[in-house]
Amino acid sequence: MDYDVIIIGAGMSGLAAGIRLAYFGQRVCILEKHYAFGGLNSYYRLDGRDYDVGLHAVTNFVGPGVRDTPLPKLLRQLRLSRDDFDLQPQRYSEIRFPGVSLRFTNDLNDLIADVAEKFPGEADHFRRLCTFIRDYDDTVLLPPYRSTRETLKGFLHEPMLVEMLLCPIMYYGSAEEHDMDLLQFVIIFKSLFCEGFARPRDGVRKIIKALVRKYRSCGGELRMQSSVARLDVADDRVKSVIIDGGESLIASTVLSSAGYVETMRFCADAPPIPTQDVGRVSFVETIAVLDALPQRLGHEAAIVFFNDSETFTYAMPECPVDMRSGVVCCPSNYEGHDDMPEGFLRMTWLANSDAWMEADEGTYRQYKDDYLTAFKAQARRYVPTIDDHFITSDMFTPRTIHRYTSRINGAVYGSPRKRRDGRTHLKNLFLCGTDQGYLGIIGALLSGITIANMHVLAEE
Amino acid sequence: MGDQRIKDIILDIIAVVAPDAEVSNVKSDVRLRDQLDLDSMDFLDIVMELRKRYKIEIPKEEYPELATLDSCAAYLGPKLAAVTAA
To answer: What dihedral do alpha carbons A65, A66, A71, A76 form, nearest 10°?
Structure first.
């Protein structure tokens, strides 16, 4: 036996699982296909500048006194301190629809007050919804599917308020198009509105570096540029993990953060996969670098979720990008970020992954040019003088996401069907990360911890 | 190993497992979970730390023996003695 546990993927969930296991004396090896850590939340350097991928905000932010929410729980489990992540809270964020916008902060009461002001008839209904969400048991492992849209209609009478709540929540974690499972909605609602947004001053690299350092100090092994070619199976168990180049590694347990469908494709005997289990939701994001901070140019919101009509469509668009809705993120609009040397404005839109995946080089470049022009036009709504301050930009697309994470379709939130107990058809192969069902950075970390605890540490 | 020493070991472990917990005034005869707001993940970690540090195996059905500092001392005393002797 080479290892007790092999973990596929050095993203948030794989690193968190690795820390737990290595800390408690397991022989662990994380295999990472890429040369960078982080998976769906990563970072890179280009022309002397640091960029983040994925991270707009660390959700689930709570102050130092709170103990029983996901963030403090996972810090305890990973033996890390709040300082290790250097989280700085947001000032505020907004949901902007035609003619009305809602402002929220890390205090739910601010959103409740703003809903009461903008939708006076809904004040009590919204308060009742918040109580329902607070009391909803989101620890049940495998509850039956419930439609969020139907549930919200039972509380709220203003259709636009329903859409305004769905917009940020679907953007920040729905693998499903059009509607979402109520459990998933509740988890994300709490992470955005009951808890809140924060950001490390150095961006996501602060978190990833803290995790890698911890993992290594616990004795965990990390093999970069080690891509899994296949899993050899016998007697309903993974017998060995074969990596590109043919090397065979043996472990008692395998945890995969590669995604459910992606992991099944490593196995010769995998069960058939229904098409609706393959994720399709992907994004294009433009990152503009400005010679001034957006807050000095009049834009102070950390995040804006916008939608240009009264109804919100969350689905893979027909065209390469659906510009009717999106997310605008300004990393310097968090506390303690006023001394950032340059400003960033990031805008995320829903994308048609086929269009970007299948485009030839010329078309791909053309799309990027066209959507950069479109980006500037839309960004002027938030920073009217953006053209005067624009230095450069970068753009990531479904193709970029696929290249760096091997997610089918560049589907950031993975399969619409989550497998919350992490089990697969093989007895010693478990899922962690996106397709296990906890999303976002904090969710992914908690996923790795939960699966490591449930299927390895508690089983010994 | 004396009872007080075992209680100190448990409090040391709690300080690592739940550094934000207030361990200075823990009562020996009151359930730890009620005094310190420990959840099931924290509790699993106490068991895991005992295994990591002292190679003590605690079967799931005996977790209730760790409810209070007094019961920890009574239950872990012989186990720690066996490990120390070996």
So the answer is: 70
Choosing among B45, B56, B57, which should be mutated to test the A contact, i.e. which has the most A CBs within 10 A?
B45
> Is A200:A87 a contact under the CB 8 Å cutoff?
yes
Separation of alpha carbons B46 and A277, rounded Å: 39
Measure the CA–CA gap between A65 and A63, rounded to whole angstroms: 6
Name the residue ranges covered by the structural domains of chain B. Answer: 3-80
Q: Which of residues 14-53 of B touch A (CB under 8 A)?
A: 16-21, 37, 39, 41-42, 44-45, 48, 51-52
Neighbours of A227 (CB within 10 A): 14
The residues, ordered by sequence, that sit 6+ positions from A100 with a Cβ below 8 Å of its Cβ are: A118, A160, A164
Interface of A with B in 431-460 (CB under 8 A): 449, 453, 457-458
Which candidate, A170, A201, A196, A197, places its Cα nearest to that of A184? A170
Distances (CA, A) of A113 to A90, A95, A102, A169: 18, 14, 10, 19
Q: Are A17 and A448 in contact (CB under 8 A)?
A: yes
Give yes or no for a contact between B36 and B14, defined as CB atoms under 8 angstroms apart: yes
**CA-to-CA distance for A318 and A351, rounded, in angstroms?**
9
ipTM of model over 0.85: yes
What pLDDT was estimated at residue A460?
A: 64
Contact A112, A130 (CB under 8 A): yes
A160: nearest Cα among A118, A203, A222: A118
Interface of A with B in 91-130 (CB under 8 A): none
Query: pLDDT (tens digit, 9 = 90+) per residue, A160-178?
Result: 999 999 999 999 999 999 9
Q: Tell me the domain boundaries of chain A.
A: 2-83+202-275+416-459, 108-195, 280-405
CATH of domain B3-80: 1.10.1200.10
pTM of the complete model: 0.95
B13 is written with which tokens? Answer: 């472990």
